[in-house]
Amino acid sequence: MMLETIGSKLLGDEDERAVSPVIGVILMVAITVILAAVIAAFVLDMGDMGDQAPSTQFSWDEDVGDGTVEITITGGQDIDTDNLVIDTSGDDGMDDERVSNLGSDDYFHESDDNDRPLGDWSASEIGAGDSITLDSDDYDDSEGDLNLVAHYDAGETIYLIWEGDGEGQILDDYETSD
């Protein structure tokens, strides 16, 4: 008799024993449903945040005497030129020029009688080692032979902007000398 009393206190009555397995089953089902939802979100790519801007490093080399700024990609991920925009902070010169719109026959103005072709940046994708030069000199296109002139004024900021899925992110910027 004494063992039955001790056993019922330790193990519980017949009615109390069923509560623990029911709670255990409910917890197991809840954990399984939550785990399945998390896995489904990753498998079905529901957690995608859209296009991510590339992680790319640039170097800027300004030659005040020549009035030029050379932008070189020094490392990181390649950039699709459809998503790359060059912009300046001023009203003159280029304004939100998408790099992919520039053909290899387009020019960046270097001086009145010496124009530099777009070069490396006319490709659909650019990466480490590719460079482009912008000019601050006044230019005269009275002959009408330049399709595009990338031009900045002294003291302006030049922005390299990555645009994807309707959102833009400044990859790098450089403030030119006055």
Describe what is shown at a glance.
This protein has 178 residues and is an alpha+beta fold.
Radius of gyration: 32 Å
Topology, number of strands? 11
Quote the average pLDDT.
Answer: 71
How far from one another are the termini?
101 Å
- Helix and strand pattern: HHHEEEEEEEEEEE
Can you offer a commentary on this structure?
It is a single chain. By secondary structure, the chain is α+β, with helices and mostly antiparallel strands. It has 2 domains: 42 residues; 120 residues, no CATH class. The chain is 22% helix and 33% strand. It has 3 helices and 11 strands, in the order αααβββββββββββ. The strands form 4 sheets. It has a 4-stranded antiparallel sheet, with no helix packed on it. A hairpin with a 4-residue loop joins strand 1 and strand 2.
